[in-house]
Amino acid sequence: MTTVNVAVLGASGWMGRVHTMAYQTFPHFFGTGQGSAQVVALVEANLAANGEAAKDLEFRAPGARIEQDWRRVIRDPEIDLIDICLPDNLHYEVAKAALLAGKHVYCEKPLADTAEQARELADIAREKGVITRVGHAFPRNPAHDRAKELITSGALGDITMFKGCQHIDIYADPMAPYMWRADGDLAPTGIVGDTGSHVFCFMEFLVGRVSELIAENFIVTQQRPKVDGLGYGDAASGSEVKEWGQVSNPDATHLMCRFENGARGIVDFSRTATGRKFQQCYEIYGTKGALVYDYDQVNRLRFYSSADATGQQGFRDMDVGPEHPTFAAFLPLPNFALGYNEMKLIEVAEVIKSIATGQEMWPTFESGHHIAQMVDACMLSSDKRAWVTL
Ligand SMILES: NC(=O)c1ccc[n+]([C@@H]2O[C@H](COP(=O)([O-])OP(=O)(O)OC[C@H]3O[C@@H](n4cnc5c(N)ncnc54)[C@H](O)[C@@H]3O)[C@@H](O)[C@H]2O)c1
Q: Which CATH superfamily groups domain 3-138?
């Protein structure tokens, strides 16, 4: 059995904690036949002076060494896989250093700040012959495997139209605090790389590549309060605000696109959609059928077939269940619901399987490059107020 030695970078953050858990937990569901993982190092820059953060890391990965400088784990010959859960602006620099050192790299989305950087990373990975993976997670929900099976089988005919959206409301309140996500130096493409990249990933998986698009990006709230200790779900009160941060990347985007296969798309995403705690939807229309997905019913697809008899036509619900191996790994019955953390477990199991078998699995850095091209095109199109060819 292959055991992959992993370093998780950004270990105290949301993704760092989920990934660390997933390496230790996935064999409970998928076994060790296709590899296992040992978290041997956790890298976290922000270790509190009182040592609580370090103690928490020790608890979460017993025996792992704790580092503050990511360069130290990249130099370590014992480490096979570098897992990047750092803020967006560090992805390119860290991934490049890791690839050049011959490491396998699993990088949270967005892969890089520009398509040029993403292209360079994909090229280095190919030259080095290492495994790469971008951490989009959501498409690993088996509901989307079912959608892909229906599309590939021809049940929808030729795809003519994709409508997609992803919305959250973390920045709906103008007093929601300034975080790295609103800083154009730390997250240069804002919501486009953050949330748009997830929708673009679905588009590639289910419909295909995009050839041109026109987009409008916009900032809804220009300045946000800078208050230490406030994060997701918080809002500052006027009296405690001494400093304001300038929002310097997009809060929201609307776009239209054309796919290489002739289908058309309409997409929007934002972080200011009041009341939308997490909305992720798509509708796919073809010449013979249609599919509708809504994350509010996370394991359910709605399917329409023109082949149904007159009088019996209509969208029908499909509950995705244990007929799919990645669902069966967790639950023996449909509609008990797989959630976000299970999607990450499936993804991490695939990353380790890829390394153990030498077979890359989608979405690799090649897809990361295509998605980065779409992000670039949105930024350029919005600046120029014009269609952009990818
Ligand atoms: N796939 C998904 O669904 C998904 C969901 C959330 C976030 N993300 C992505 O994951 C990445 C991390 O996001 P998050 O929400 O976990 O952020 P976070 O702010 O919760 O965590 C980032 C962590 O990195 C640490 N850090 C920052 N600079 C560092 C450095 N130089 N060296 C070591 N540690 C450093 C921070 O102290 C923090 O603990 C982002 O790129 C984000 O876009 C992906």
A: NAD(P)-binding Rossmann-like Domain (3.40.50.720)
Q: At what angle do helices 52-60 and 14-30 cross, to 10 degrees?
A: 20
Predicted confidence (pLDDT) per residue in 34-82, tens digit: 999 999 999 999 987 567 888 899 999 999 999 999 999 999 999 999 9
Angle at 211 between CA 218 and CA 85, to 5 degrees: 60
Record: fold of 142-336: Dihydrodipicolinate Reductase; domain 2 (3.30.360)
pTM: 0.94
Give residue 34 CA to ligand 1 midpoint distance, Å.
Answer: 28
Ligand 1: distance of its center to the CA of 229 in Å? 16
CATH 3.40.50.720 residue spans of the chain = 3-138
Best of 15, 89, 113 to mutate for ligand 1, by most ligand atoms within 8 A of CB? Answer: 15
Q: Which residues of 174-188 are buried (b: 16+ CB within 10 A; e: fewer)?
A: eebbbbebbbeeebb
Ligand 1: nearest atom to the Cα of 136: 1
Domain with CATH 3.30.360.10 in the chain: 142-336
